[in-house]
Protein 1
Amino acid sequence: MFFFTIRRLISSVVVLLASSMLVFALAVASFDPLAPYRTRQPAPSPEFFASLRTQLHLDQPFFVRYFTWLGGVLTGDFGQSNGQTPVGPILMQRLGVTARMVVAAMILAVLLAIIVGVLTAVRQYKPEDYFFTFITYVLIALPTFWFAALLKEFVAIQFNQVVGKTVLYTVGEQSAGINLYGTSSEIFYDRLGHLVLPTISLAMLSFAAWSRFQRASMLDVLGSDYIRLARAKGLRRGNVLVRHGLRNALIPLTTIVALNVGLIMGGAVITETVFVWHGMGEYLLMSIQRSDLYPLLGWMMVAAFFIITFNLIADLLYAVLDPRIRLT
Amino acid sequence: MTPQARQTDEPASGAVLEVTDLDVQFPTEDGLVRAVRGVSYGLRPGEVLGVVGESGSGKSVTSLAIMGLLPSNARVTGSVKFRGQELLGMGDKDFSRIRGKGIAMIFQDPMTSLDPVYKVGYQISETVRRHDSQLSKKAAKARAVDLLDLVGIPNARDRADNFPHEFSGGMRQRVVIAIAMANQPDIIIADEPTTALDVTVQAQVLEVLKTAMDETGAATVLITHDLGVVAGVADRVLVMYAGRVVERGAVDALYYKPRMPYTLGLLGSLPRLDDAEKQRLTPIKGSPPSMVNPPPGCPFGPRCPLHITACDDEEPELVEVEHDHSAACIRHEELAGHADPAEFFDTDASDISEPVVGDAIPAAHVSGRPEENL
Amino acid sequence: MTTAEKPTLAKVPQEEAKQEVEREFTIKARSQREQIMRRFVRNKQAMGGLLLFAIILLVAWIGPLFYPFGFNELDGTARSVPPGSNGHILGTEGLGRDLLAQIMRGIQRSTLIILIAVALSLVVGMTVGLLAGYYGKWVDNVLMRLVDLILTLPTLVVLIVVASNFTQARTAIGIAIILGAFGWLDLSRILRSQILGLREREFIEAAHALGASDRRVMFKHLIPNMLGSIIVWATLAAATTILLEASLTYLGFGVANDTSLGKLVSDGVSAAQTRPWLFYFPGIMLLVIALCINLIGDGIRDAFDPSNKRVRA
């Protein structure tokens, strides 16, 4: 198990490095950081362009630029946005904002998926099954931003009216300036209020897909011989369901969840845009619009890092849960 | 008064298991399938009953019905009494107390019978602790190790901490047997325990099964399609066809004096190593009938070499042909004294897939590539 | 006594005249095809989805011939009017363009996008998957590592970055190509692992022994056996494409000049409160189409592999 972990860890690092090269190539090929300046009136002087080029290392060959950047990243320096403000701190701060939503959404989606998946499997072909199957079908076919807009424009307002005060917020990740005047618990609840709708929007698509997967996995497991043997041993239904059924049926889910991290990140970008959060999503779109190279690089590296990390965790978790694969 | 009441070879009270008129039906897309139709038998304590039949004869469904492990859409009627207590209709709470302790079961495929994520020792302790809540984990583990030792797993103490995938098929089946005997059951039902195993391993596992029967003193129901397996182990034999019992009796009676053509056919298709002369095998042509809409008359009729028109009128009842021996054939007397299958069955195996009433797919012709001998 | 008729496969072969190698394998596929079709037809949800989808497509393409308003026609007298006014069945948007006409046009463009994107992904995915699975070893290694590498980045983000590069490609076809260029990753993995399994089966060995070339094996034997996965993937990819296109457009990187269903939906978001018809109709339409495609895809999957239907032991 130990060596398995070490091997996977090393392999992940290698992939991360390769990914960084891909990211760099992709970003560099996409952007001309000088583009915003080319169209300015009055046109900046050639000397300005020349000095900007040197400043942004644009005169150097690809690999030199790559390693310079990579070296910087490894020491925590993500370069500078438009040659001025450092990328690193902004990136981290916005990461914190987005992470709240992503983590909450993933937890929500996984829990709901397990519950609904098991329920619909155990009650196959009964009304509950049809009901949830219908809902998941609809959720999978729903465009995330449309659903988010629906929640934002209609559910929030109605809910707040019913309750009598603003509980669910639709704009931003917290009320403006609350850090300055609020107590920690006020800040906490304020953020929570802002978190609810975006989390639900983001979670729904994943929940729908995962619960159908979990249902299939559960049905598969429930039909197997060892479940029958467990019952033949005299174990009660509920016991068998959880101890032998769920325990086996959860294993494939870990892989699926890990594989979907990329999708969730994409979804987060969309959700943040709908709810006007000042997180990673906004940062990404801003950087692209401004042809700002280093923020984009930093963004992609962070994204790749998390995806690779999640894959690693999923691999390890799988090995923990399924003794059959520990040998590899 | 049911026809079965005529039987005097039914064990009296003192029987550990009494199955009466067991009937199991499944609704399917094609109609109602009657998998088991009026099966009755008794099992005395310590007795070994062999249940023989082809796939689809209803032998597995019968035992699943006894254990209460049929899917919820199955319709079960009749009576199954375990030590006088009626099992059919019993709630899961009570039934699960009997499973694994009063009646234990061994399934066919050892490769899939064990949960792959739990250690083997745990899976044995699990059943021990379920039926004895006072027992500590340590004590249960010790008992598991003892049981593994008993079924012939070398190095039992260490092996108890292994996972099922670290065992071979034969070893896994031993573990399953260990689980079955763990709580000293009164009855062990072994559903084709050796079918999925290599021939050499089969013999070993049967030995282990015998050990289990000796250790626990349990009555055993050994279900198989292999008459050879039954010969060495069983006291009495039940032959099933198309969901019914077609012959029943002591093992010697059935083997040497079969009174139902199907039994005779089964014996004929069994390779015998103890015969001095070489003899051809006599397979039974055709395949078992579909159980959705069985035609009236004896279900074995279309395949039976003794078939006459009277056979198609109604299904023969199980009648006593001698003491403790019953058969369901209207021509059973003619079989008395004729124990050679070759007398009645053809030795020609070439048209195995000839169409039979109600079910089989008609064979098509192929202009001959001689290699294509399927 | 019976004659010496050899027993054989159950169904009657229709093409006994063809070469022997083919006959062994393609016959099985043919009779299976009927079975699969029958299973699909019996699936009520799938058939319902198929029917609805067909109706929608029909209306989208034939409708404009009968409908008085064009999709780009500006009706100055009826700007932002709710459904039912002035003969505009679903109302109009800010510039006076009829919503129903726009939706019909949008569906046309979106289906075009789906076709192109899925076809492109299919070609690339099958190529990569076949090469990796069939030749194995280092080819497999390199290709799959490449796929894994691309997958370390969130797909939507990659699409955004690429789309932002090609500002001239903000047409339906341009977007379709971009979507297709990145939509094949899943498929290649699926096919590759299927081939790894099929490769070991005897009929492939037999084909090789009879001297079949690699290409022949791939096209005549492997692909027909993978048709199920391919078709299922294609339908689900279609649904994903249409939703991705909508998301891309919403974020500002999708179809610009022309209209598409995704564009209509994302445009409608800002009007959710003030002109709800612009929000609801396109959104519901997109939902229904994606739903139909999913139902069809699931129906096909169940038709190919009914084992997951009645599982409870």
Note: Chain B has a mean pLDDT of 82.
Protein 2
Amino acid sequence: MKPVFALIDCNNFFVSCERLFRPDLEGRPVVVLSSNDGCVVSRSNEAKALGIKMAAPAFKSRQLFKEQGVVQFSANFELYGDISERMTRVMTSITPRTEVYSVDESFLDLSQLEIPDYETWARIVRKRLLHDVGIPASIGIAPTKTLAKLAGERAKQDLELADVLDLNSLTQQEREVYLLNTPIKDIWGIGWRLKPKLQAEGIYNALDVARTRPQHIQQLMGINGRQLVAELNGTSAHPLQAMGKVRQTISHGRQFGQDTSNFAVIESALASLGAKAAFGLRKENLLARHGLINLSSNRHRPGYQRIKQPIEFATPTADTGHILSAAINALRQSFNPRMSYHRADILFYDLITEQQLQTDLFGKTSIPTHNRSQARLKAVDQLNTKYGKQTVHYAAEDLSNAWLPKKHSRSPRYTTDWSELPVINGLV
Amino acid sequence: MHDDLQTMAGGDGVSVHTGFPNPALERRGNSQPLALDLNRLLIRQASSTYLFRVAGHLWADQGIFDGDIAVIDRAAQAHSRDLIITWREKDMVLIRQNQLTEEDKPWGVVTAIIHQYR
């Protein structure tokens, strides 16, 4: 069976989520800013037209925002997460062969569906997502994931394509026009680091890459380069990553409301992040083998500093107590009182399922102790789920929330909080 | 009888030995709980269903009160007597489908109103 993939990519996803409940913002420049209102993470087309760049620090653009009447939102990740799940639900109802690639992009394997005309099919799917969920998306269709991604990007950028491009039904020559119009920075799998290296070899667009000899591209960018050339020429090298794959990492991070050198503030922030991560691990029945804390000063100020300190566990764990003591230990070992801390992140990797623990570590870990701590944690989680997060917590988790970012302009959590539902106005 | 003792998979992977098969479980394919589920009554399609809060007494004569929750299905086909919500100027408002005007931006069909007494 010949492989056929669709890439469904939500247009300006976070902004589109905000506009769903604020139809008056249609046609106006809108941006969504990252936690603590640091950087632009999503832009409406009108904001793009004003020259506002992705990841631009918001403080540099305050003047422009004001002059042009740019509407700003602080990120509302609960809303975006819920809308993303709705999109996924629609897609998996079309085919369970769906790979959720990121919060706003999914690959669908169409090879087992009977679709007489891919373009017509894509228009129907696009219309359904827009009408039923309320979010506009672009759809690219091609025999490989890399080409599907490229098609999706072209579909979004070339206005006359109106968000749909089917490369699968085109001949090689017809495809080449689209490859020619795709600069290397827009190719899936080519980072900005590679750009100067490739340009030095006279490779400027996707067609140049497709025509590079496999040996040559391998010298330039390793074995991934060979796969890239194959994919751009229509030979699939990347199969669909099936759903239900065990996640590889879990991380939580925050910027401080104000830069700080206060150990206690940083400690409580890390404790709170660690508790969240531990809850996340337990929710998915995972245990972490390794972790790290990542602390940094403000990237946009001179003397940028960053500290990475590994977190070690004697045995794989999802126990809040173990995780917090290890994380705080890592902070103690790496703390620099002269550094101005701007951001804290905690990351766990090398995750295993509980079943794996019992099969491959039996004997090495004390199962009775593990089970006892499991029972205690389950009780904690049940209370927190029932009565709201942070009902039961560890002393190190700071509840004053002094370190939490200020959410200047977060929209209501329309779909995830009973007290913030959107309103039908019947006031006389 | 050779099939007197049947093994059935109950919830949570528990094996249940029973003299008679439970016809209700058979009918539902064992996968769904027997108890009534309000979600199944009120939500036809989760991906397109949104909940809104009614504010004010404008529609009290139609039995829709301040604080009620409106279940809105964006996927439902609207007929002329259906209640729908639409964006008008700065607000979401309730009207009948046949009262829509050119300027309206219809948002979804009201499929249920939840009124809680306490």
Note: The CA atoms of residues 40 and 95 of chain B lie 26 Å apart.
